[in-house]
Amino acid sequence: MASHYLRIIVVVLVSLAAGSTKHGFGEDSGLVGLPFSLLSPTEWTHRPVFIQAEGNNTRLLKSDNEFRGGLPLDEPIAFESDIFKGVIVIRLAHTTFDDNKPLPTWQCQFTLQGQFKEPIRMDELYMGEAYDRPLVGMPHPIVMKAVRKVFAFLVPGIQLDVDHPKHPRVLALYGGTVTALRVDKPGKEPNIAQVSRSDMAESSLLLSDKFTTAKARKSTLSRPRTASSLEFDTTHVYTFQHQDTVMNYTSYYANLAPGLIVDLIPHLDGQAMSLGAITNDGRWMFRFRIWNERTLLEWRKNDRRCE
Asked: Keywords in UniProt for this one (predicted)?
């Protein structure tokens, strides 16, 4: 349940906020003064998106110079953080699939595989969005209070602070959020290049004999009280797959429902959204920012300097 609500929460809140201004993008965007690490959009490998490892938290195991046009899609990317070492494959429906193939039901999918460097209790690792600056046009505090009550019931343990004055965030427990999870002994894990090209089957019985289905695993690991009895250990190989049906990164529009599409650009203040997981004490397991050309237009408008 949590995996479906994370994006929808942000979308609902911005749709409650004041009206927004639309921005376009194309060959003549005229972007100048960009952060050097992003280059000009004309040099992006997957324009209009540019995927970037968050350097302070996620270290690539290849030289950054090999990814000057942005990280690749549909290919394994080796990385390491303070608490995890592994590989990730990111796929975006509107760039990974050409016009001759039907689009999948999801907008974005990532498959992550590797091992933890230290045991992490499952009630201490969260997935979602975290920002460095306030979001624009959030609802009135009275509305936010009501929204928090509703989502606290729907997603126990959720951190819903999108109206925070400095560091907005919306996070839910990682183990109860990912679409599918495999836990294997080293050497028995699936080939990530292959498993990332399909809907991965759940196989998490090594965590608990009660986890016969993804639904059973999510029911336990989405609640802090029940998740606290389990941990991600250092001896097994974990393969996580998550499918996001809401956020279209090639446009930065969120598809809330058929006919209901919300533009998030005016509310992000030039910030990029990201894929990531973070511990309670602020350590990132992984973090990859997904920039869009429209995001950079907003960045330029506000004369931002990326951190």
From this structure: Signal
